[in-house]
Amino acid sequence: MEKSGERKEVVLLACGSFNPITNMHLRLFELARDHLHETGKYKVIKGMISPVGDGYKKKGLIEAHHRVAMAELATRSSDWVTVDTWESLQEEWVETAQVFRHHYQQLSSNSSEYNKDDDVILIKKKKRKLEKEEAALEKTVPYRSETKGVPELKLLCGADLLESFGTPNLWKQEDIIEIVGKFGLVCISRGGTNAQKFIYESDVLWKYKNNIAVVEEWIPNEISATRIRRSLRRGRSVRYLLPELVVDYIEKNDLYSAESEEKNADVILAPLQRYTKDANN
Amino acid sequence: MKMVTRIPVALLACGSFNPITNMHMRLFELARDHLHHTDKGRYMVVEGIISPVSDKYSKKGLVPAKHRVAMAQLALETSDWIRVDPWESEQQQWSETVKVLRQHVRYSVPLADCPAQQQSSTFMKTVSEREKKYWEKSQNSLIEKSSSEGWQRTFLLELKLLCGADVLESFGTPDLWRKEHIEEIVGKFGLVCVSRSGTDPQQFIHESDILSKYDHNIHLAREWIQNELSATQVRRALRRGKSIKYLLPDSVIDYIKQHNIYTADSEQANSSETLQPLKLQSTVVNLLND
């Protein structure tokens, strides 16, 4: 039952390579949850890590089953963050907006207060609305989830993902609108001014700025997976930068070498390939 | 037949460890990697020692030593080369760092005549499979010798102080360190200083006569993976009810919760006290004035 003053339930969804997962990724969840709770308006009930599929074809991306295994080991000690394998199991790369639609569907059908009939009507309404959206971007009025009992699904990310919205051919405009307008973003950044500035300079993001929570990370840490892989290639220790179980797993399976970093080196990233092709058609 | 001798090294880190964090443990990993990869692999790091300071240090917010030692022990349960030594924390008075160094070198075990084979296996035990492969690939032979020959040398463990750039720079704070002690620490023992980008320890060394003199005994390791994690930050987060997960080992977090160690009150401990080394120095000055 929704009462004013009652907290809205939220599920945080993080999409990314997780190649490998690091303590920094895990911190994003903790920071986001603390922030949302502090606003008094939200209650974070679940965190989901959704590693990208191999179809993404990013340079140095190792097999999904390893990345999933490591994420599972990393979240073993968490009572609210889990790993979802749906995206990683798809053969072709799946757009983030599609991943959201999939998970939102799951949440809707799982909801205990879910009224099936209401939702069928809602789905039909959504479909019509989406068709309209594709026709006229400016006229689109994405709606927030107001279905009773269904938690809000938000994209959890770093400022780099937010800024990647600006990279040509990496995202479809409609997808950005859907993710930010319908779902919402929790963006963790250090030196929040960069994220704020980027939002300010983008019409779409500015329009939905109330759906974007920028969380300042006061304990900045640059444990990027790229640097981790570099250290590993050079025979250096990465202990205490990732969970112990993940360090052991990497060791045991001998992951991340100069060879693995060359994977997909001559292949174009899936979204770039897909959107450039669409543009050319 | 090539013989490469490696100088065995133990790293000693003194500090509050209030509480121990992933960053503290990273210092050890970085220092070890650095010593192994520089100077054509001159050193072999065989041991790491964490020595939490005694309660008598009177630093603001310092919680009882027994907790700090217990937390460090929990954190290091999974390490096969770093351990906690409670000696310093158990002393009745605060101990100057140089005394702790002297204490530990007294009980270090000299590697008596040992065949190269044995020495190599000691080294191999302390590094991971990955590192072994790296060594093999880079053709940095550790020790190659014929099996018939023995080794006729005695190796004494070199004990070095492991610290961050902030400690190095604290050598410049008036009355915090005694000049003779700095000389002994850097001259006799040696320093491994891990710094983050943005700090310039080399500059600081250059501007100090003592440090410049023993420049060869100061090893500077760089932390490229920027990390501003500090125990102060952790305590702040705890006071504000924020999560500290993934900043320190789960076992330490559980311990803190269980014993309710860090609170607004605990942070006020010693707030009216003077830091012990400063107290001592001013006492010395007063005696001279009489």
Key phrases:
heterodimer, A: 281 residues, alpha/beta, Rossmann fold, 6-stranded parallel sheet, 13 helices, 6 strands, 46% helix, B: 290 residues, 14 helices, 14% strand, globular, nicotinamide-nucleotide adenylyltransferase activity (chain B), nucleotidyltransferase (chain B), EC 2.7.7.18 (chain B)
Q: What is the radius of gyration of chain B computed over CA atoms, rounded to a whole number of angstroms?
A: 20 Å
CATH homologous superfamily of chain A - what is it?
HUPs
**Roughly how many Å is the radius of gyration of chain A?**
19 Å
Number of domains of chain A: 1
Structural class of chain B: alpha/beta
What features would you describe in this structure?
The complex is a heterodimer of chains A (281) and B (290). With 281 residues, chain A is of the alpha/beta class. Chain A has one domain: 3-Layer(aba) Sandwich (Rossmann fold). In chain A, 46% of the residues lie in helices and 14% in strands. A six-stranded parallel β-sheet of chain A has the order 3-2-1-4-5-6, sandwiched between helices. In chain A, helix 1 links the parallel strand 1 and strand 2 (42-51). In chain A, helix 2 (64-74) packs antiparallel against helix 11 (244-253) and helix 4 packs parallel to helix 7 (173-183). Chain A is globular and about 50 Å long. The N and C termini of chain A lie far apart (48 Å). Chain B is 43% helix and 14% strand. The model of chain B is unreliable at 107-126 and 137-155 (pLDDT under 50). Classes of the chains: A alpha/beta (281), B alpha/beta (290).
Brief sketch in words of this structure:
With 281 residues, chain A is an alpha/beta fold.
Helices and strands in order:
The complex is a heterodimer of chains A (281) and B (290).
Chain A: E1 8-16, H1 23-38, E2 42-51, H2 64-74, E3 81-83, H3 86-89, H4 96-110, H5 116-135, E4 152-158, H6 159-164, H7 173-183, E5 185-189, H8 193-200, H9 203-207, E6 212-216, H10 225-233, H11 244-253, H12 258-261, H13 270-280
Parallel strand pairs in A: 1-2, 1-4, 2-3, 4-5, 5-6
Helix pairs in contact in A: 2-11, 4-7
Chain B: E1 7-15, H1 22-37, E2 43-52, H2 65-75, E3 82-84, H3 87-90, H4 97-106, H5 116-125, H6 129-137, E4 158-164, H7 165-170, H8 179-189, E5 191-196, H9 201-206, H10 209-213, E6 218-223, H11 231-239, H12 250-259, H13 264-267, H14 276-289
Parallel strand pairs in B: 1-2, 1-4, 2-3, 4-5, 5-6
Helix pairs in contact in B: 2-12
